[in-house]
Amino acid sequence: MSVLYPIFLWVAGLSAAAAVGLHFLSTLQPRREIFPTVRFVPEATLHSTALAMKFSDPWLLLLRALAILLVGTAFAQPHFVLWRQSVARIVAIDISGSVARSPAWREQVKRATAGAATAVLFDTTAHEVRGGTSIEPLLPGALSTTTDSSGDRDSPGRLSVALIAALRAGARLSESANSVELTIVSPFLAASFDRATPSIRKLWPGRIELVKADSSQAPAAPAKVEVEWQDSAHSALWVRRSHEDTASGVYSEAATLIAPLERKWQLAATPERRTRVIARWLDGEPAAVEQNINGVLKRSMGFSLPQQGDTILRPEFMRFTEWLNSSSKDPSAPPLLDAETLATLAGAAPAPKGATMPSSTAMSPWVAILLAVGLSILIFELFIRHRARRTPEAPTTQPAVA
Amino acid sequence: MDESDSKLLEAVRTIRWPARRVLRSSQSGAHLSRRMGQSAEFVEYRSYRQGDDTRRIDWKLLARTDRAYIRLAQDHALLSTMLLLDASASMAYPVATLAKWQHARQIALGLCAAIHQSGDPVGVVAAQGAADSDEERLQHLAARTRRGVVQEIAKLLREVTPMGTVALAPQLMKLRSSQRAVIISDFLGDTQSLLNTAAQFVTQGKEIYAIHVIDSAELDPPHAALLLVDPENSHIRRPMVEATRVRYQAQFGAWCDSLAREWLTRGAYYVRATTQEPAPFAIRRITRTANLAGA
Questions:
Q1: Cβ contact, residue pair A398, B134, below 8 Å
Q2: Between the CA of residue A26 and those of A52, A58, A276, A395, B230, what are the distances in Å?
């Protein structure tokens, strides 16, 4: 048996002990004795000096102590489990579109779910698969069902959602297990970590095992960079402007280039999904885009750089041209969680002794039963007490006369 | 009859209980009667008066003296005795042994035996209350002289358990036909009414004996601190400690003396019988005429 609020058990125990003590104290009163000529005893205030401890009203005491303990146990909300397993494992599996569904991922999931009691499949929502002692046989079906029915495949899986679902499952499993472990299988993209995640993470006691999966949005670093200039290439990404002008410059993540650049092209209305704006005119209009096509980073510029003059001598121009041809960083790859955040998410220490999962709101049926029995005993005790008062104090052969 | 009763009857086997007064009864018995009759116990001659039965004239004396004389002889009469036994809750003390009640019962049985041995009819009334009401229950055996009446009384008294409250005065009033009434009680009930009724008995020339049964613990209460409860009224509760104990003994002793005076003033015979004194001794003391007044 485990209890949710042990303090009530302590209080009930102390109250029962106090009741026992009161029963002993009551016997400190002078012994009552029948005496026919009591009318000749003068009235006096009795200061009892009797120290003999004598047990009185054992049945009343038994009923009172039992009622107090039962009510206290009911308030403590006990949970009776026939047997407890030492460890129950929960596996949270990211099934969002950000996960690369490779055989390696399947192997990772298979290893993680081996021996797990519950799996939480999550993307922007969470779905729990309960498997009793092991969910491994249930997982393939659940995975296929969930992946088919889920809506927002492109968004990364939310760690907050996974943690909340895991906390719920952990509260349930903690009633039948000594400890609960959590494993999260996810690419751990930066986008999956929101501002609520740290505070939710603090609710889970102890460490979380993090299993990093491959991301579908993280292609291999491009080996080659191709730069095309629209003035000479005539790409479909661009359309000619209705009237040309001369903007004062463009800015990119590498440098801001201030120069009298001619603006002849504007971005097509519906660019491809993989297209990313990498430079803009000073008024915010896209000036250059890039696409990652089969490992080749293709950058398309909607303007032409000057070939002569002071502009080409400026450091900004040099940084811009260097950045334009560099492929060291793939800007289209989604950012991952940094090591520090991952360490925070995983946690360093195991769960402290006595740490409990946040309680589930479901009340044990034993609470109502214990309360009912306790109150019944209290009513019965009332009846017994009333009856005891009515019983004559003299022996049955000498009834008291009212 | 149990062993203690048999021992008691053996101890009082020689005791007789003579009447203290000359009786008016016409029934022939062992006690002196006021009537002068025709028995063999000659007393005197009296001159014949008109209306005397001529069969009672001593004809030989008439022949010698030529005067008519009536021969007078001392008549003997029976003394019908009824015992009224208080079987209220106050007699059931101490609760564990009922020593007070047993003592009263043995005195009653011994007196019955003494009366029966005197050839007088004897009966008993044991008045007890009810456990759950004010109703009174009477165990009654009419006065008889026949053999075995003592055994019947012993059986009746053994079946009585003292309980409840009892008013003895109305019961005493019902015993008017008896020449001698013996009240065995602790007199903690309707004492004043009982005294008044007894006074009426005495004025009618009947004998009234008040046997005051007292338990030794009532005279010398225990020294422990106790909360004492009246057996007939549980609302009366008093603490018994050393300070109150002395005052209790003084008050109780004064009450006993006052009660003795009340009985003696009304012409009754008052005898105090404590449980310390063996029942045969008490019976001898009661039946000994010379000691009656100085009990």
A1: no
A2: 11, 12, 88, 20, 22
Pairing of strands B81-87, B180-185: parallel
Question: Domain coordinates of chain A in residue numbers?
Answer: 2-39+50-80+364-390, 85-218+334-346, 224-325
Distance from CA of A47 to the nearest CA of B (A): 9
* Tokens representing residue A7 in the block: 């303090």
How many Cα atoms sit within 13 Å of A107 on the Cβ side? 4
Residue A400, pLDDT above cutoff 50: no
- Total-model pTM: 0.48
Of the ranges A205-219, A363-377, B80-94, B247-261, which one carries the lowest mean pLDDT score?
A: A205-219
Per-residue model confidence (pLDDT) at position A173: 83
What ipTM did this prediction achieve?
0.82
Average model confidence (pLDDT) for chain A? 78
Quick one: DSSP state of residue A154? S
Question: Element (H or E) spanning B28, and its range?
Answer: strand B28-47
Q: Where in chain B is CATH 3.40.50.410? A: 3-18+79-291
In chain A, whose CA is at the least distance from the CA of B135? A401
Tokens, residue B143: 């006065």
Q: What is the pLDDT of residues B237-291, one digit of tens each?
A: 888 888 888 999 999 999 999 999 999 999 999 999 999 999 999 999 998 854 3
Helices marked H in A204-360 — which ranges? 230-233, 315-325, 339-346
Q: Do A42 and B218 touch (CB under 8 A)?
A: no
Do B229 and A43 count as a contact with CB atoms less than 8 A apart?
no
User: Would you list the DSSP string of B47-73?
Assistant: E--TTS-GGGB-HHHHHHHSS-EEEEE
CATH architecture of A85-218+334-346: 3-Layer(aba) Sandwich (3.40)
The CATH code for residues B3-18+79-291 is 3.40.50.410
- Candidates A26, A27, A33, partner chain B, best to mutate (most B CBs within 10 A): A33
Which of B136, A393, A32 has its CA nearest to residue A402? A393
Which chain A residues are Cβ-neighbours of B251 within 8 angstroms? 40, 42
**The two structure tokens encoding residue A149:** 């029915």
The residue-averaged pLDDT of B22-50 equals 75
The beta-carbon neighbor of A398 closest among B92, B188, B237 is: B92
